[in-house]
Amino acid sequence: MPIDACFVEVVIDNSKFILAGVSVALAVAAFTFLKMRRLSSKAKIGLIYAHLFGLFFPISLFTTNAACGFLCLPCFESPLGLAVLAVPSALLFSTVAGFVVIPLYFLYSGRSVEVKGTAITSFISRHSKTLGIRPPRVYAVKNPRPFAFSFRSFRSAIVISIGMMDILRRKELEAVILHELAHVKSRASVLKLSASLMRFSPFWILKSFHRELDIEEAAADKYVQIVQGTYKYLKGAKIKVNEYYGNER
Amino acid sequence: MVMIEKIRLHKKGYESVLSPQESAILGVLWNSREARVRDIYRILRKRNKIALTSVAVCLDRLYKKGMVMRQAETGPGGVHYIYSPLKSKADLDRSIVENIVDKIIYNFGESAVSYFNERFSKSRRAKRRGI
Ligand SMILES: [Zn+2]
User: Fold this and answer.
1) Do both A56 and A117 map to the same domain?
2) What angle (nearest 5°) sits at the alpha carbon of residue A186, between those of residues A183 and A187?
3) What is the pTM of this model?
4) Closest residue in chain A to residue B61, using alpha carbons only
5) CATH code of the domain containing A117
6) Domain with A155 in it
7) Residue in A with minimal Cα distance to B75
8) Which residues contact A105 (CB under 8 A, 6 or more apart)?
9) Ligand 1 centroid – CA A161 distance (Å)
10) pLDDT digits (tens, 9 = 90+) for A23-65
11) Which residues of A touch B38 (CB under 8 A)?
12) Inter-chain residue contact B81 with A166, CB threshold 8 Å
């Protein structure tokens, strides 16, 4: 009986629809800005999050609303209080979606090309076999700054910027690829990507994330050392990458 | 559009608008038409002390200044940028002058225009007198 009464109250409240409308407008605005060129990748990632958040917020608003109504809690009485309650779950949703959406954005926005039939690809298939994993796809991102990461969403992939391939020698590039392959093998590379994305969300304060990350990184580096018999090339690659960002300043 | 951020009046030639490294790189590109980061590094290394990574950074700056273009090309060792000059030397000179003069007129308006008029009528008169 009181449950029914609560539910009726919940459904007919207009202010929630206004909040949801504003949120969707935010999502649309973020999406529109995203199409502008000359944005830094940081700005783009921020906008992707704003977009995702704008989309998820109404959903979590209404689910929180329903939950409050269902439990007959007073939280639905003030739309503002409800909004505050809905924010954490919307952030969580958008962060999780970001893991999937952001790599896909890199791959399908025309800013990357799949690398096929090169020495790199045969190197990868050879070492994937040794590791007992399905060889990941390799993508070259059209970006002059050196970076590389790997992820698994539908299928695992290693993403390397052209800037990275431009400055590394063959052995150094192989070291980077082996490092990423070790990530693919351990499946935790999602963690790394997400950690860098976490900067954009309040979850950044969860420091335990970093410690796990360090262990994962050390393991990937160790794998490179085992295969190449030396840290030399990996170290060389890291020095060059740091040097690049140092020169940029 | 060529973008000039600052002019160093005490420097000569391209070094007044570009860093010494950037102008050296541009020189290499005019000679070889197109080159990868590594090719330019190999040529410059013989003359100056320069790091491969600063060649890469400078090329990106030149790209952002609208002075070079780049294309991604897949080779046996992966994908690389092939850089080439966006303008001939003469065209670039003209764009730089245009850029600087436009900015002076924008910032100093009347005074700049009246000075240019004076300066050019003087040089026209000098030309007529055959000096
Ligand atoms: Zn790593």
Assistant:
1) no
2) 80
3) 0.70
4) A248
5) 3.30.2010.10
6) 112-248
7) A118
8) A44, A48
9) 15
10) 888 888 887 776 665 666 566 667 777 777 888 888 888 877 7
11) 166
12) yes
